[in-house]
Amino acid sequence: MSQPYSAPPEGHVSHSRLERVLRSGRFAITAELNPPDSADPADVYEAARPLGEVADAINATDASGANCHMSSIGISALLTRAGYSPVYQISCRDRNRIAIQGDVLGAAAMGVSNVLCLTGDGVGVGDQPGAKPVFDFDSLSLLRTIKTMRDERKFLSGRTIKNPPQLFLGAAENPCIPPYDWRPERLAKKVEAGAEYIQTNYIYDVPLFEKFMARVRDLGLDKKVYILAGVGPLASARAARWMRSNVPGIHVPDAVIDRMEKAEKPGQEGKKICVELIQQMREIAGVSGVHVMAYRKEHEVSEIIRESGVLASRKR
Amino acid sequence: MYRIRLFAIRHSRSFEWIYKRLERAMIALDPLLGKIGYDRVERPVAFVEKCVKTVLFDCKMCGQCVLSSTGMSCPMNCPKQLRNGPCGGVRPGGFCEVKPDMKCVWALAWDGASRMKGGAQIHTVLPPVERNLEGSSSWLRVSREKAAHLREAREKRRTAIADAFPDARANEPSAAPLAEEPAQAVKGSK
Questions:
Q1: A111, A148, A258, A273: which one has the fewest Cβ atoms less than 10 Å from its Cβ?
Q2: Domains in chain A and their CATH numbers?
Q3: Is B140 found in the same domain as B96?
Q4: Contact status of A253 with chain B (Cβ, < 8 Å)
Q5: How far is B48 from chain A (nearest CA, A)?
Q6: A248 Cβ under 8 Å from any chain B Cβ
């Protein structure tokens, strides 16, 4: 169990395993946990088990897609108890600055050492579209706020924090949707705001992502921030199409959907595509790891990572 | 209004020029406004500002106008009111995730900024909106802020000698004066 109040290792900002792996130059793996609609901790542990086998950190989503599930702070706290290293996702949609700054301290006190600052999907796409959207912060002002709490030991009000939260700061990026030309610039802004690692949305369009990464390298951002490319297995052509039109910010090229359509066993094909994507990501300069989002397919994650061979060089 | 807003963003360069002039005028007016009292002018100026900016930019009177840093595309029109760039949900063709018929405010902002002289300001990380300033005049705020900034710089120059010679100031205050000089006491001043 990490000890939040001892100083982080030399050159680190936190006790995070993810930070250690990234700073040591190893290819990092993170995976997303599908939050249960349940109040039973066992459901969280069950979902975490297949991810924990391969992941350096497990992402606890914060009502992604504006759908209500167990909270990210609750899941993160449970995961630290079980010895996993969670990524506490914070969306700006549901809470204002007072709630979020308090939760950041609470999470850090419970042993959380990674956060991911997100804007959040609009409430309209979720299961309770009548909810009031908050968006007091956006992902960048949130990043800067937590950085201020950590480095300057201050709340946004200027009040002093006795023991600051030791957190590895992350943000998301979505390279495959418009405005394409400005996505790398926006990444630069996130780094400026305090992002130390980036987890991207699903990437199925490798050429488009390579173009993005080329610009990222031109801007020198690959030297300033660790980028984890988002991947995940598709279940079927129909599911892919549904995702494309109903989940904000997901771009699946027609070629990938065609391939799924023609496959005899779509499930197997989806897994194979994911393995190939991971192998391709590994070859792209400036990519420091992958972030696996296997919606309702957590059990496949460790198999996918093993098949991709990206952990083969690690001493385990 | 949406069309006029798009027009303003297309002509971001011209509006930037106009805004710079307006800003200078507002700073020049600071002494006068100060004399009348900022409290007294707040409501009438806010009213005029609201009328003008609602037509041009679909202004929401957040009170903390940042148009010069957002390509003249008002970020309060973003359904998530983002202040630092587009979210990850922008639809193909650059349309908004929440309002699919509307162009993404931030896609337009980067576009507008690319035509502006000071377009690089879009790279600055902006703080969250202070909601208690909603409805107040941003123009007057700019005037106060910039004038205060200028005063501070002047003040620094004026007190430089006093700061550099603290001992002399302790013994002979008039050798390194700190207090503001009345105009009559200074040669060459009006």
A1: A258
A2: 17-308 (3.20.20.220)
A3: yes
A4: no
A5: 27
A6: yes
B90 to A179: CB separation less than 8 angstroms, yes or no: yes
Contacting residues for A284 by C-beta, under 8 A, at least 6 apart: A209, A210, A213, A229
- Assess contact for A52 and A33: CB atoms under 8 A: no
When CB atoms are compared, the residue of A138, A188, A201 closest to B83 is A138
Across the interface, do B90 and A249 touch by the CB < 8 Å criterion? Answer: yes
* A3 confidence band (pLDDT: 50, 70, 90): low
* Closest Cβ opposite residue B128 in set A93, A124, A136: A136
Number of domains chain B is built from: 2
Q: What is the DSSP letter of B98?
A: S
Size of interface A-B (CB pairs under 8 A): 101
Residues B181 and B115 placed together within one structural domain of the fold: no
What are the counts of helices (DSSP H) followed by strands (DSSP E) for chain A? 11, 8
Residues B78, B14: one domain? yes
User: Is residue A1 over pLDDT 90?
Assistant: no
Q: Closest residue of A to B82, CA-based? A: A138
Type and span of the H or E element at A187: helix A183-193
Q: What is the pLDDT of residues A255-288, one digit of tens each?
A: 999 999 999 999 999 999 999 999 999 999 999 9
**B177: confidence class by pLDDT, cuts 50, 70, 90:** confident
Residues B77 and B132 grouped into a single domain? yes
pLDDT number for residue A4: 57
Residue B13, both tokens: 């360069």
* Chain A contact present for B123, CB below 8 A: yes
**B131 — phi, psi (to 5°)?**
-65, -20
pLDDT 10s digits, A37-65: 999 999 999 999 999 999 999 999 999 99
The share of chain B scoring above pLDDT 90, in percent, equals 74
Domain coverage including residue B183: 159-190
Q: Are residues B88 and B166 in the same domain?
A: no
Tell me the per-residue pLDDT of B4-15, one tens digit each, with 9 for 90 and over.
999 999 999 999
Q: Are residues B151 and B176 in the same domain?
A: no
Phi, psi of A118 (to 5 degrees): -125, 150
Contact B89 A97 (CB under 8 A): no
Average pLDDT over residues B45-67: 96
B88–A172 C-beta distance less than 8 A: yes
pLDDT in tens, A148-182: 999 999 999 999 999 999 999 999 999 999 999 99
Interface check B91 vs A, CB under 8 A:
yes
Provide the 10 A C-beta neighbour count for residue A265: 9
pLDDT for A5? 76
* Same-domain pairing of B140 and B64: yes
Rounded to a whole number, what is the distance in Å from the CA of B187 to chain A's nearest CA?
45
Q: Which of A125, A127, A137 is nearest to A90 (CA)?
A: A137
Same domain, B63 and B148: yes
- Would you say A204 and A256 are in contact if contact means Cβ atoms under 8 Å apart? yes
Contact assignment for B125 to A133 by CB distance below 8 Å = no
